[in-house]
Amino acid sequence: MLPGHTDTSFAAGVAPLNAHNLKQSNAPDKPQVVYQPPLSDAQTTLVQHTVDAIQLVARPVGASPNELDSDAFIAEARAVAQRTASKITAIQGE
């Protein structure tokens, strides 16, 4: 028995990230997945938030050391904190 659309929609939305080139951290890129039949609003939101989270985590991991020094890492953390209305305390230096 094969899984139906509902069972595979989450994996199908997240899977394209495996082929997405995350090495180009300076180029904003948002892959889009189109479903037929369309997903519900709740399913679309869940898949989009998951894709965004995976990209957010993968970008610093795939960045080269000259792109992601301590200043850039702190700037990225501050940007995430601002987008998520979170507080951040950066401890930098000795």
Secondary structure: elements and pairs:
Layout: H1 5-14, H2 41-62, H3 70-83
Helix pairs in contact: 1-2
What's the gist of this structure?
By secondary structure, the chain is an all-alpha fold. It is built from three helices and no strands.
Give structural notes:
- It is a single chain.
- This protein has 94 residues and is mainly alpha-helical.
- It has helices at residues 5-14, 41-62, 70-83.
- It has two domains: 5-63, no CATH class; 67-94.
- It contains three helices and no strands.
- Helix 1 (5-14) runs parallel beside helix 2.
- The longest helix is centred in the middle third of the chain and has 22 residues, at 41-62.
- The radius of gyration is 17 Å and the shape is elongated.
- The mean pLDDT is 75.
Q: Which class of secondary structure composition applies to the elements?
A: mainly alpha
The low-confidence parts are none
Radius of gyration: 17 Å
Strand percentage lies at under 5%
- How many separate domains make up the residues? 2
**Largest β sheet strand count, sense and barrel closure:** none
Shape: elongated
Salient structural properties:
mainly alpha; elongated; single chain
